[in-house]
């Protein structure tokens, strides 16, 4: 029996059907790839917001140890009682990046954080607190000096109020002989962690601390807004606050793609120790104010790249900046395709708890 091949018409029909099937499959693959891409960047923004918030809260949890009634700092030659927690409200003057005002509307936050080993074994563990053995207002005498970390800043604390001392000159202790600690503020009249008691007291604790500054700034490579952290020094900043970033130091990137950072300060103004009656403030000056009990931290993070519709023809219309706390975004702001994730957490300040006063 004689066989025959496909006719030209049959071949053209088969090719047309095959082309349609391939085009449909390709379209499905592109759409599926876009869905996967968008989902990945949504997850990415969730992770960035959570990690940024947790990093801040980890420092907040430690800050203020030994200073529920404030920290004495020498400013312009005069002792001034300051707080272990303060920060600028960005919406009052366009935010901060480092110590320079910007237009992002974000807040910043300064914390006085003790060495992580300050409760370690004295005279053995680096960073552990040592005890003052002679009262007074000038040079300190301490039971040992092995755990001190000059030239780092230190606090002298009676666990109610404290004094921040700098430029330490340490004369090491010897067996049976106290160590001596000279510091820049020793000759300042009235400078003490408890001036109402006439100076430092026997039994006060001396331990290293860090000044930590969180703020929003550009990533050094991508230039995208990111949560940054710097170590501080005891020099007034451009905003008149007692601390400023280390000169010439490169900020540490805590988390990239974080575009907004907001802090609310909760005060127990009634004295009832009832969180439901706390008064909330946006922005808090550096001077100590009684009653600070809690912080509410909010960060907004984005994905790395814009999300687009299944045809990749336009960014998603709902992906645009969001309002957080009192940093209000215009409702007509154009969509940019960046998915936003918000992390908000409130933390009672354990080192300022009423039980510690």
Automatic annotation (TrEMBL):
<protein>
    <submittedName>
        <fullName>Prepilin-type N-terminal cleavage/methylation domain-containing protein</fullName>
    </submittedName>
</protein>
<dbReference type="InterPro" id="IPR032092">
    <property type="entry name" value="PilW"/>
</dbReference>
<dbReference type="Pfam" id="PF07963">
    <property type="entry name" value="N_methyl"/>
</dbReference>
<dbReference type="InterPro" id="IPR012902">
    <property type="entry name" value="N_methyl_site"/>
</dbReference>
<dbReference type="Pfam" id="PF16074">
    <property type="entry name" value="PilW"/>
</dbReference>
